Design the sequence.
């Protein structure tokens, strides 16, 4: 409920001049048991290959399956709305320290299927991006 309210409030805020064109990317964090599927969703204005290398250096704990990113014009807004929509749909956000690198990540979600990029995440990014572009 709170995520849904935050979603509405965020959509009516004026776009920031600092909210720039970037790419929303996703990767699947491969777990040993794969009983649940973890997906990291983020944004980058760097080339995606550079972001992949940076991430692998920063946190080499688990294998990652990267997906092509989605170009958006207002990356901060779209990324934030994607997180809020996922939470409003009941998907759990993983907020804990990584046992390997010690960093506290907030952009990781438990999703019900291994194909969540194709069936949930990418369509959601595209939908929200279109809504932001059209001022909906």
Sequence:
């Amino acid at each position: 409920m709170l995520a849904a309210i935050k979603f509405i409030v965020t959509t009516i805020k004026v776009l920031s001049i600092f909210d720039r064109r970037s790419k929303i990317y996703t990767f699947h964090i491969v777990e040993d048991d794969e009983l649940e599927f973890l997906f990291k969703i983020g944004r980058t204005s760097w080339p995606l290959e550079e972001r992949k290398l940076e991430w692998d250096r920063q946190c080499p704990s688990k294998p990652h399956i990267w997906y092509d990113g989605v170009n958006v014009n207002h990356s901060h807004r779209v990324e934030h709305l994607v997180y809020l929509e996922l939470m409003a749909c009941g998907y759990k956000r993983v907020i804990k320290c990584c046992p390997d690198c010690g960093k506290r990540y907030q952009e990781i979600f438990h999703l019900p299927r291994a194909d969540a990029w194709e069936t949930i995440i990418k369509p959601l990014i595209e939908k929200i991006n279109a809504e932001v572009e059209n001022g909906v």
Notes: The longest helix spans residues 116-133. The beta strands are 22-29, 37-44, 64-72, 93-97, 104-111. Residues 2-133 form one domain. DSSP finds four helices and five strands in the chain.
